[in-house]
C-alpha cells in the first residue's frame, strides 16, 4: 500500500482487519510544545517502517492552530492527521472550522461527538449528525466518539452506544460504513485507570452483534478512556486504541504501536 494514501483526506485506506492507534492533545500543549512533541511522534512512526504496509494505522489529532505545521511534519509518513472538531457547513459561522477547510489542510479524520463537547458545549445528537454528514461530504472520515455516562451492564452500554451511532448517521447505515467508532465510556475519561479489558470487550462484542444486523460487523471500533500501554493485548474484538495523556510521552505511543503490530491478524 502507498503510504501517502493513508494521509489522503478522501479516505483512510486500510485493510479489513486494520488496527488504529491514535492520540489527541486536547488543549494540554502550547504551540511550540505541540510541534516538538509531533516531531517525536513522527520519529516513533518512522522507526517502525512496517507501518507503511497499512495494517496498523497511526493517527494524531493536535489542536487547530497546529494543523498546517503538523501537515508538513507528517507529510510522507503513515501518520494520519486528524482534527479535534469541525463545524457543519461553510458560511456565516463565526469561530467554527468547516470540514472543507480541514480537507484542504490534509486532514484525514475528524473527532466528532466527544463527551466533553456533548457536556460542555451542549452538542446533542442533532448537532453530531450535522457534523458527521458534513465531514463525510468533505471526504473526511468521522471519528465518532460514543459512550455511556455510567458503568452498567455491558449489554445496556452496547445498546446505548448503538443508538448514539444510529442517531449520528440519522439511520443511514450506508453512511455509518464511513465511520471509525471511538468507544469512550464517559466515566473512564480522565480516570486513573481505563475500563476493565473484560468490560470493554463485552461491550464491543455486543455492539458488533447489533451492527452486524445492518451489515457493519467489520466497522472499526477502537477504545478510548485512560487507554495506555499494556491494554490492547488484553482486549478482544477491539480495533485499536485512542490514547490521551499517556501518549503525550511519545515513547508510550511507540509502545502501543508495537503492541498493535504484534497482534495476530483478524483479532
UniProtKB/TrEMBL annotation:
Documented EC number(s): 5.3.1.1
Keyword field: Cytoplasm, Gluconeogenesis, Glycolysis, Isomerase
Known catalytic reactions: D-glyceraldehyde 3-phosphate = dihydroxyacetone phosphate
Primary location recorded for the protein, binned into one broad class: cytoplasm
Entry's Gene Ontology molecular function annotations: isomerase activity
Pfam families registered for this protein in UniProt: TIM (PF00121)
Pathway linked to the protein: Carbohydrate biosynthesis; gluconeogenesis; Carbohydrate degradation; glycolysis; D-glyceraldehyde 3-phosphate from glycerone phosphate: step 1/1
Record keyword Glycosyltransferase present: no
Compartments where found: Cytoplasm
Enzyme type, top EC level: isomerase
This protein's record includes keyword Heme: no
Family, per entry: Belongs to the triosephosphate isomerase family.
Subunit structure of this chain's protein: Homodimer.
Protein name: Triosephosphate isomerase
Organism listed in the record: Paenarthrobacter histidinolovorans
Amino acid at each position: 500500500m502507498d503510504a501517502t494514501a493513508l494521509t489522503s483526506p478522501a479516505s483512510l485506506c486500510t485493510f479489513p482487519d486494520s488496527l488504529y492507534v491514535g492520540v489527541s492533545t486536547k488543549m494540554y500543549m502550547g504551540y511550540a510544545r505541540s510541534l516538538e512533541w509531533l516531531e517525536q511522534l513522527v520519529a516513533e512512526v518512522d522507526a517502525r517502517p512496517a507501518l507503511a504496509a497499512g495494517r496498523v494505522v497511526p493517527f494524531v489529532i493536535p489542536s487547530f492552530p497546529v494543523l498546517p505545521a503538523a501537515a508538513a511534519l507528517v507529510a510522507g509518513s503513515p501518520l494520519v492527521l486528524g482534527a479535534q472538531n469541525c463545524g457543519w457547513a461553510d458560511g456565516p459561522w463565526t469561530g467554527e472550522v468547516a470540514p472543507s477547510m480541514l480537507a484542504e489542510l490534509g486532514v484525514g479524520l475528524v473527532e466528532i461527538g466527544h463527551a466533553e463537547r456533548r457536556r460542555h458545549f451542549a452538542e446533542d445528537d442533532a448537532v453530531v449528525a450535522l457534523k458527521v454528514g458534513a465531514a463525510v461530504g468533505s471526504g473526511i472520515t468521522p471519528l465518532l466518539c460514543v459512550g455511556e455516562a455510567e458503568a452498567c451492564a455491558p449489554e445496556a452500554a452496547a445498546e446505548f452506544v448503538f443508538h448514539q451511532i444510529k442517531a449520528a448517521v440519522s439511520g443511514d447505515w450506508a453512511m455509518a460504513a464511513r465511520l471509525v467508532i471511538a468507544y469512550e465510556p464517559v466515566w473512564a475519561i480522565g480516570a486513573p485507570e481505563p475500563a476493565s479489558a473484560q468490560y470493554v470487550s463485552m461491550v464491543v462484542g455486543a455492539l458488533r452483534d447489533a451492527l452486524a444486523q445492518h451489515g457493519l460487523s467489520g466497522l472499526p471500533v477502537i477504545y478510548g478512556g485512560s487507554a495506555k500501554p499494556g491494554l490492547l493485548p488484553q482486549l478482544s474484538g477491539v480495533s485499536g486504541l485512542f490514547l490521551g495523556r499517556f501518549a503525550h510521552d511519545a515513547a508510550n505511543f511507540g509502545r502501543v504501536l508495537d503492541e498493535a503490530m504484534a497482534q495476530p491478524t483478524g483479532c
